[in-house]
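Worked Example 4.2. Consider the chain below.
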Amino acid sequence: MLSGMLPRLRSSTTRALRKLCGLAPARDNSLLHPLPGLDLPPPLPDNLGRSPTRVTTLPNGIRVATEDVPGPSACIGFFVNSGSVYESAETTGVSYLLEKMAFKDTKHRGHRNLVHELELTGGNVGASCSREQMVYSYDTLKGFMPEAIEILIDCMRNPLFLQEEVERQLVLAREEVQDLQKNPERFLHEQLNLVGYSGALANPLIAPEDALARINDKIIQKFYHENYTADRVVLAASGVDHESLLNYAECLLNDWHKGSPVEKPKSTYVGGDSRHRADSDMTHVALAFEVPGGWLQERDATTMTVIQTLMGGGGSFSSGGPGKGMHSRLYLRVLNKYHSVQSFSAISNIYDNTGLFGIYLTTPPDFVVKAVDVAISELIAVATPGEGILKI
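Applying the procedure from the previous section yields the following structure tokens:
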């Protein structure tokens, strides 16, 4: 009887509160029909086509690319054809430092003022270095795009590289390098390049300690001015009108110097073997081979990415909850079968003209020989007709 009275009590209480507050009585409206007096925008069509990619090249060589996708947010980014492959013996490690020096003091803004402006717009900025490319990005709401474009261009074109800031970042970089061996997977990804290639791709991406000891503001500025030239820059945006971005780019970037033609340094895959003794109860192994072509062979690169996803793998325990990742080929064929294996996953590093594909695994030392044999078998199986990726 009490349970039957509760709904009526809640209803009468609600009516009393609405009356005290001078509100109109609430109506019982069905969720199947629009509320009276509420104008809704037209729904999106069932088949929403992809926004076209528009590309314009400025007279100085900068390419401006956009996709005006729907939604409240937008992202803009600078992609620079620069990275560790362009470093010399003198400039080894500079790309690693440039990532850390991003969005610091410029000719027009101090670092504190820059952070304050980013907080006011709710912006999210980031920088990332790789062996062949540097990326600087800015995410924010579309209404703040004019401010975002100006800030990003200022940080790209007018960095000061103050020596005191360089020294501060060098201290942080040394700590990261010292901690690298505590991250076996990242350490082995770096080693794959150092022993797998000769030439530019064998240049270290993570600056070695001897390089950090000689890097200063002058070396960083020299590398920046030699490599950050207009003909090696792409300004790309998602969720931004092409003509609007082009107007800003023509105004703020048309005087960026073009630079002299630069031939990309050569690299040759040679293969190799590297072993490192560490204070660990587990053995970590990365086994990989070359996949020629790279991103410039778009079909092959896409195929390799799909195969990596389908092979999958991961840890013996899924931190994301029961069943996460357990559908992948390596999980079903390896992790479910060999309980000594702690992790077993497909890996790939793709560059412009080449790439590496393989398996990263973690296992106790007494099972490492068997685990490597299993990894070899899985790599052979995925390339063997009749034993391909779809056959579980």
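Confidence is low (pLDDT under 50) at residues 319-323. Residues 382 and 388 are 4 Å apart (CA to CA). Compare this with Example 4.1 before moving on.
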